[in-house]
Amino acid sequence: MYKTFSELKKNKILYNTRLKKVKVALLGDTATQFLNVALKGTAIDEGFEFEIFEADFGQISRQILDPTSEYYEFEADYTIIFESSHKLLNQYYKSYDSQIGFAQNKINYLEELYDTIQNRTRSKVIYCNFPTINNQVFGNFANKVESSFVFQQNKLNYLLSELAIKKSNLFIADLLSIQNKLGRNFMFSPNIYVNTEMVLSLDVLPIVASNMVGIIASVEGKFKKCLILDLDNTTWGGIIGDDGLEKIQIGSLGIGKAFTEFQYWIKALQKRGIILAVCSKNDEDKAKEPFEKHPDMVIKLDDVAVFVANWENKADNIRKIQNILNIGFDSMVFLDDNPFERNIVRENLPDVCVPELPEDPAEYLEYLYSLNLFETASFSENDAERTKQYQVEAQRGIALDSFTNVEDFLKSMNMVSDVQVFNNFSKPRVSQLTQRSNQFNLRTVRYTEQEIENLMSSENHHTISFTLEDKYGDNGLICVIVLEKQDEETLFINTWLMSCRVLKRGMEDFTLNTIVETAKKNGFKYVLGEYIPTAKNQMVKDHYERLGFTAQEDKWVLNANEYQGKQVYIVNK
Question: How far is the CA of 292 from the CAs of 230, 275, 287, 297, 307, in angstroms?
Answer without folding.
Answer: 17, 20, 10, 9, 13
